[in-house]
């Protein structure tokens, strides 16, 4: 495993996977193939609104050109500012890397403690956001070890799994995330019906 920052490592590994799979492989992003996802990432980093016209223009360049642009790295500001880079791009590239991996039969990676730590750190934000959507029910996130996080009143929905899997679930990748959802039936139904996609 590389010692590069999480965002750069996830970027490089995603680029390798995109190159291996080609432009027409599925992703977990509804309606998007791998070329759509690559175009989205290029547009996002250059602050271009992802209109249909912009997406079409980027896709017309072909997947190899998009991969080359992604491999070149993001603009310096704000994407390479220490601290911000991991939060802003680490999350984005992790989730989209998994969008491609899981849609193509690749399972969870178990050798990434830094990803687990980042996912648990971010779970406070996404967990709070999800809990607001299921009020008056509460939400508890339970990792395999350590203290759980609770948002709202006790006795609500309980989501158990590795932090990366919790993050995928709360990011709208519910069918692909390896989690266990238990607790109050109404709270569970509310969480299943909430729009938590990022």
From TrEMBL:
InterPro entries: DinB/YfiT-like, Maleyloyr_isom. Keywords: Isomerase. This is Maleylpyruvate isomerase family mycothiol-dependent enzyme. It comes from Glycomyces luteolus. GO terms for molecular function: isomerase activity.
